[in-house]
Each structure stands twice: as structure tokens, then as C-alpha cells.
Amino acid sequence: MTRWYIEKKHEHFYNEAKRVGYRARSAFKLKQIQKKFNIFSPNDIIIDLGAAPGGWSQVAKEFSGESGRIIAIDILPIKPLDDVILIQADLTEKKTLEDIAKHMNDKQADVILSDMSPDITGNYSVDQARSIWLCNNAFKIVKKLLKPGGHFICKIFEGEDTQHFINTVKKDFGMVKKFSPKASRKSSSEIYLIAKSLKR
């Protein structure tokens, strides 16, 4: 596949996102995940970690419907989104977990999403290690706020620590698979971990 073709494909998702009103082309990654794995249901409570600029929250709201509750968290500001609760906070701080829980009306989440990426340094070992660190922080939130039978989607950079993290997640979920959406750049080392059915 030529570089020209790959760039055109990337451009296609970018342009399509602008056309339909998604804030990022990554929205199509989540739509492709939903099509293959059927993650969302109407009325879901969904936590979106590392949500800026809000593309995944837009898609999550579409699939969860009017009665769905989306709680989007990022250390960066997110412009207001209709029917989405926005929290600007550091996910690694204990208070953030408390802030999320306040918006859940004593319920647990049906789905937790993490599209978090580290600030890219260009040193792959460093970037991959930071990606794993973010994934582990997301998983801590999963263990506290996801309901039994709930689902977890997590972006991770492939590398020497990836399989260890996958094995950790497998202990707690009925199904865990790796997936690369077509909307991802072919040159990217990112994959998505699809974890379904949290065990009781």
C-alpha cells in the first residue's frame, strides 16, 4: 500500500469527521469498535477517560441515547458538549475519582473508555512505557467504578510491556481482544484492547 494511499485514507477520515460534525477523526475508531464488538446499549452510563477534544463522547452519546449518561474527563479543557458531563482534572488524583462518582447517582458505569495517549517524545521505549502507565491508571478506575458485566476499551501502544497488561486485564474480564480500527494510521503502533463482561 503506497504512502500516498495511506495519507489519502487518513485525510478521508479527517474530512468526514469535519463533514458530520465530529470533533476528531478518532470518532470513527470508536464507531468501528462498536460495529465489531457491540459495546454500547441504550441508557448506558459511560465514562470517557482522556476525552479531549470530545469525539468519543459524541459517539458514546449517539449509541447510549437520550437517557444515556456520559462523563468525560481530561486534564485539558473540553468545549461544552450537549448532554455530556465534563470534568477537567488529573485522572491520577484521588479527588478525580470522587468527582466522577458524584455524577453517577450511586450507580456503576456500564462502559469505561480510555483513548489516552502520552505526550509523544519520539523515544519509543519512553512513549510505550508512558502509554502502559496511563492504561494502568485507567484500569484502576475500572476496578472501582465499572459494574459487573461492564465493558472496558483502552488504547495502548504495542511494546514489551503490552502483553503483561493484557494478561492482567484478562484475569478480570470474560473476553479480551486486540483490535486495530481502519481509522487508525497504518504507521501507528496503537491498538485497542476490547475487554467485555467484567467478572463479579
What do you see in this structure?
Helix 3 links the parallel strand 1 and strand 2 (69-74). It contains 6 helices and 7 strands, in the order H-H-E-H-E-E-H-E-H-E-H-E-E. The longest helix is centred in the C-terminal third of the chain and has 22 residues, at 124-145. The model has no long low-confidence stretch (mean pLDDT 89). The chain has one domain: Rossmann fold (3-Layer(aba) Sandwich), CATH 3.40.50.150. 40% of the residues lie in helices and 25% in strands. Helix 2 packs parallel to helix 3. The chain has 200 residues and is of the alpha/beta class. The protein has helices at residues 3-20, 26-37, 55-64, 94-102, 124-145, 162-170, and strands spanning 45-49, 69-74, 84-88, 109-114, 146-157, 173-179, 190-198. It has a 7-stranded mixed beta sheet with strand order 3-2-1-4-5-7-6, sandwiched between helices.
Helices and strands, with pairings:
Elements: H1 3-20, H2 26-37, E1 45-49, H3 55-64, E2 69-74, E3 84-88, H4 94-102, E4 109-114, H5 124-145, E5 146-157, H6 162-170, E6 173-179, E7 190-198
Parallel strand pairs: 1-2, 1-4, 2-3, 4-5
Antiparallel strand pairs: 5-7, 6-7
Helix pairs in contact: 2-3
